[in-house]
């Protein structure tokens, strides 16, 4: 939060000292000179190098082509770049695996978007920007399943729902903790999706954007039973990932805050995730 100083000289001094400092609470990119392409200590001078996965999937990136700006994370990346003063021609894309990017050590990118959840454990080895997205968890199923038409959390238990999730995920925590159900645990989401297709489970718990994709594309006759309100309330959201103690972290975080405050981020969410469509909150 900004402090109000009684004396103007002190205010001016404070502004100079704190320009481009941690901005997750201030919602601004800080000093426009310090946080400009000419001043930012990027991997390549004058260029903003952004990483995503190999491949990158819908709805995060459309047609595995982040340079098009199509898809939620591709659009966020370009909005942040623009806020920092980079035009599209000054943005360079590289690819990394999920695990390699989050490992300790130097990076080949300035920031990385692969739906990295901000956690205290991860913050010990990498930096994160302010959160650019937080979502509820949702349940994907298929038409005619035993949970098709369920409208309440109690209804899941009453139906004897067998829900699945990938190991070590927020989704698994929701099933076992918030819903109090015994979960079917899978090594990854791909294995869990296969189990749902084969009707070995009644529903798969994933984040809401993934639920839209799975129900529309991957699962035959797929449906979203509903979303679990507040299921990610303890989660810190998705953040742009940077190397530990990166000198540009505060400027990048400030750019995220700025697009959040000016409505750009919400417009991107509405365009690419439409989180309110077809996913009722389970009472």
Task: Describe the structure in your own words.
With about 280 residues, the chain is α/β, with parallel strands linked by helices. The chain has nine helices and ten strands. The chain folds into two domains: about 10-135 and about 235-270, Periplasmic binding protein-like II (D-Maltodextrin-Binding Protein, domain 2); about 135-230, Periplasmic binding protein-like II (D-Maltodextrin-Binding Protein, domain 2, 3-Layer(aba) Sandwich), CATH 3.40.190.10. It has helices spanning about 10-20, 70-85, 100, 155-160, 170-180, 190-195, 210-220, 250-260, 265-270; strands spanning about 50, 90-95, 110, 125-135, 135-140, 165, 185, 205, 220-230, 240-245. The strands form three sheets. The protein has a five-stranded mixed β-sheet with strand order 7-6-8-5-9, sandwiched between helices. It has a three-stranded parallel β-sheet with strand order 2-1-3, with helices on one face. About 45% of the residues are buried.
The top-level CATH class of the largest domain is Alpha Beta
Number of domains: 2
Beta-strand fraction estimate: 15-25%
Along the chain, the helix and strand elements come as: HEHEHEEEHEHEHEHEEHH
């Amino acid at each position: 939060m900004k402090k109000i100083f009684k004396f103007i000289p002190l205010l001016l001094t404070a502004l100079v000292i704190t320009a481009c400092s941690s901005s997750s609470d201030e919602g601004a990119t800080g000093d426009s000179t310090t946080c400009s392409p000419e001043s930012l200590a990027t991997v390549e001078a004058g260029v903003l190098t952004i990483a995503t996965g190999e491949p990158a999937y819908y709805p995060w990136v459309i047609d595995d082509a982040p340079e098009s700006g199509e898809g939620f994370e591709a659009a966020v990346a370009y909005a942040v770049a623009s806020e920092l003063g980079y035009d599209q021609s000054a943005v360079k894309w590289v690819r990394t695996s999920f695990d390699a990017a989050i490992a300790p050590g130097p990076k080949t990118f300035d920031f990385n978007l692969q739906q990295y959840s901000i956690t205290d454990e991860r913050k010990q080895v990498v930096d994160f920007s302010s959160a650019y997205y937080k979502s509820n968890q949702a349940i994907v199923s298929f038409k005619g399943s035993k949970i098709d038409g369920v409208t309440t959390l109690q209804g899941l238990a009453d139906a004897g729902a067998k829900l699945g999730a990938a190991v070590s995920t927020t989704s698994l925590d929701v099933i076992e903790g918030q819903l109090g159900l015994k979960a079917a645990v899978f090594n990854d989401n791909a294995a869990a999706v296969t189990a749902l297709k084969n009707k070995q489970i009644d529903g798969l718990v994933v984040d809401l954007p993934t639920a839209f994709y799975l129900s529309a594309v991957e699962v035959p006759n797929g449906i979203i039973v509903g979303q679990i309100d507040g299921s990610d309330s303890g989660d810190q959201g998705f953040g742009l990932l940077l190397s530990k103690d990166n000198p540009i972290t505060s400027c990048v975080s400030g750019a995220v805050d700025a697009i959040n405050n000016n409505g750009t981020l919400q417009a991107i969410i509405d365009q690419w995730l439409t989180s309110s469509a077809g996913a009722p909150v389970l009472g």
